[in-house]
Automatic annotation (TrEMBL):
Source organism per UniProt: Solidesulfovibrio magneticus (strain ATCC 700980 / DSM 13731 / RS-1) (Desulfovibrio magneticus)
NADH:flavin oxidoreductase/NADH oxidase N-terminal domain residues: 2-333
InterPro entries hit by this protein: Aldolase_TIM (IPR013785), NADH_flavin_oxidoreductase (IPR051799), OxRdtase_FMN_N (IPR001155)
Domain of life: Bacteria
Keywords: Flavoprotein, Oxidoreductase
Keyword Oxidoreductase: yes
Gene Ontology molecular function: FMN binding; oxidoreductase activity
Pfam families hit by this protein: Oxidored_FMN
Higher taxonomy: Bacteria, Pseudomonadati, Thermodesulfobacteriota, Desulfovibrionia, Desulfovibrionales
Name of this chain's protein: Oxidoreductase
CDD domains (alphabetical): OYE_like_FMN_family
Amino acid sequence: MKVFSPIAINGMRLKNRFVRSATGEGMANPDGSASDRLEALLKTLAKGEVGLVVSSHAYVEKRGQARASQLGAHSPDMEAGIARLARIVHAYGGRFVVQLAHAGLRADPEVTGQAPLGPSVPEDDTAGQAMEAEDLARLEAAFGTAAALCRDAGADGVQIHAAHGYGLSQFLSPRTNRRTGAYGGSLQNRARLLLEVLGAIRGRIGREYPVLAKINSDDFIAGGFTSAECVQVVSWLEAAGLDAVELSGGVFESGRLNFSRPGRIAIPDGEAWYRDTARTVKAAGVTMPVILVGGLRSLGTCEDIIASGDAELVAMSRPFIREPGLIARWQAGDTAPASCVGDNLCFAPARSGQGLYCVTEARQGERPK
């Protein structure tokens, strides 16, 4: 099957096409450094034959921290912990990428001690502030510095988080970006910060180090970022030197059409939520690898996506919370769909700092696979 075949992303060779999509684990130490629990979690994923393990969103500066117990890449003190995570994934033949993020207006002021910064202040939010020129410059530099830290720590690459209504996603969306001037208005202006972040990273780590991005295929909300805009931005990102793009979708306010749609998924008709956009991206001439996430539960659908050329890699999040050994199980011949029921109960312990685990599995008294 093609889904079990190797692939390279700018020299980063993966043993298969399966990606653990960045998932907020809530397992970092209070200072943002990697904990023993986080290391153990990534070990289970690598042992489970996930070809590429992407960390949860790691904040690049303190003011961009989304919540407590979030992984950090904002300080030299974080390098040793990220190195531990890279080593444990490498020990089992996997590759490790750190997702770099700034929460923007979703930053938690109780954690950061400062008012959140974003493209513009929402009408219903008096606490947030619009970024000034110095804030934009500091953010871009922070992404570059964080990427260099991850490279020096032994991570195989970095991923820019520009999805799900966090900082860079807020700039892309006309719903949250009501700026005028160079960073607001037209799509080109709204995409400017994301492209400059990519440029800042390349300026620090060069062209040979893999840089990926995660972007919404659609915000699925009135006035938000659209599929057509996604196709254009992905084309610009490739021209600017991006190595691979992961297509996701939705923001927290999208209701049932967000990036973690609740409920069991019909197989195969209910799978691969963003496949149409992936197909359009490819039709637009994008040649860099596309990673497709969103509602994947069966080996057959994963294989069909790769075999059809709609995407080069497939990613999952919640299925790996329930079954970190899912890919190993499929490889061994047990091709039953992922056992994740999509109840989203796993979010509560991750957000509380208790740490990510499948609540449903624990209530049923099952042993982790």
